Alpha/beta fold hydrolase
Amino acid sequence: MAGTSGHLEAYARNIAAFAEHFRVIAYDYPGHGYTTPATADLELPDYVAHLRGLLDVLGVDRAHLSGESLGGWVAAKFAAEFPGRVGRIVLNTPGGTMATPEVMERIRTLSQAAADDPSPERIRARLEWLMADPASVTDELVDIRRTIYAQPGFATSMRHLLCLQDPEIRRRNLLTGAELAAITGPALVIWTSDDPSGPAAAGQAMAERMPDARFEVIKDAGHWPQWEQAQTFNALALEFLTGTR
């Protein structure tokens, strides 16, 4: 599961490695990718309900969850509410515990500008903000994002997706201490050396509030370690998910 206004391409460097060990279900949220555009603000209960409905339709009673940013936030909320349906969870630079005004405004500004005018320059600016190394943003990645953002109605949909960058809305959706304590299954929290969303201490504090969590830092990566340091991320996540460490 990718982040806010992110899509399946965020995990393009990971799916094949995971598929060697598991049945992999990669999906986009409502309003993201090529799904139905959002016509109302989407908050965490909407994303959790969508994930539950997806698993129901696919006949999946229990699954490991792996999510980045908003995806980690959704995975944590789901695991707290439906612990019997979750095995292990990988929370990759997860959202849900911070509400930093400067970061939220930056996300809102860059994302909406890219959706309003999906030019290569605006798309690249949005993606480079996520990375430790701007060179990680390939032309192919820009083209994929441009094609998605250029869909009719996507700019309006984006405004609904960005509601979580509003301080009041964000606060009522944040993960509570009780929810983190309710995630009783094994959890792996991954942070990075150069995450623009916040310091590694935020991820460590999150892990410390869960009963069975470990914390790891990936160097030379920003908000997308699964992209910038794919080999390291894949090895770390897979050894955790397969129970080999």
Notes: The two ends are 23 Å apart (CA to CA). The beta strands are 63-68, 86-92, 187-192, 213-218. The first helix runs from residue 15 to 19.
